Please model this.
Amino acid sequence: MNVNFWLIQAFNGISYGALLFLVGSGLSLIFGVMRIVNLSHGSYFLLGGYVALTVIWTTGSWVLAIPVAALAIGGVGVVMERAFLRPRPFDPLRQMLLTVGFAFLLQQAALDIGGIHLPVRLRQSVHVGGLDLPLYRIAMVAIALAIGLAFWLAMEKTRIGAWARATVGNGEVARGVASDPLRQVLLTVGFAFLFQQAALDIWTGNNFDVKRPDLLDQSVQVGTLHLEAYRIFMIAMAAVIGLVLWLAMEKTRMGAMVRATVDDAEMARGVGIDTSRISKFIFALGAALAALGGVIGGAFLGIYPGLDFEMLPLAFAVVIIGGMGSLGGAAIGALLVGLADNFGKALFPEVSYFTLYAPMALILAVKPTGLFGRE
Model:
């Protein structure tokens, strides 16, 4: 292992960190502003790559694929945030349309998966007096009674049941007592699987490569090192986007409103800031950045089913290390994760996951809010 080995590994780690910054910065901003743990964020990365493939196949232009994918997936993010993740008052028409829509989705899923076959023993009947009672119907009654009893005990004798009764009695007071992270997790995980299935149905399960421009498909000699031009481009792109985001957040009125919302959303609303519009903007920005990462990353990672769930834990590692809602933290976190991942795979391939997540666990133990996170 000479000096060139260490320099090449460092360069590869920095370029991978540049890609992770695009994914992690959007995730960090979404949580910082909206306090939403978006587990479908990796899907934006995957869908961005697939949209880019479609644009390239249609027009032959890789350059055009970048803004089209970012705008398209940013739009998906806006719809998802407006329709599902934004708190709303009681709206029976909306609830009816949503639940009917999900009923049809679930019905189609059930048709695709197949039917349920009864066990042989439950297909029999039991003779009671002069009646022949189907054993399956007796089992249905018994199961309904057991579930009803368990539900009653949960509602009357547990802490969760007390919360539920409080919400029924006064929903506004109950919402003031606690947020609902479980709903966020279930919704975003559900969307992640929906997006993954949609990608399989539209683009099949084959592995694809995003064809990079010929100009970037070369190497650049720096001293005795031969560096991939595309990785240099990735670093430059991440640096430019990071600088633009920093200037927007620190030097513009919109950035001041975003920072105020991150610090204290209630206070921001009190001084007249439209936090709903800020949330929409940040969610769209986060989705667009992830899609941009999918376009750029697809040229050397490839695009394939499951890539979304491979990128998601890395993005969370970036956010956890850097701190929620901090662009600088996302940049430092992405750099550390990229270097740890690359050197771990090069030096200790058998325990590369340990070398990646051990520093994250150490930082959490010492500073739970991350390196640049706020209390």
Remarks:
- The radius of gyration is 25 Å.
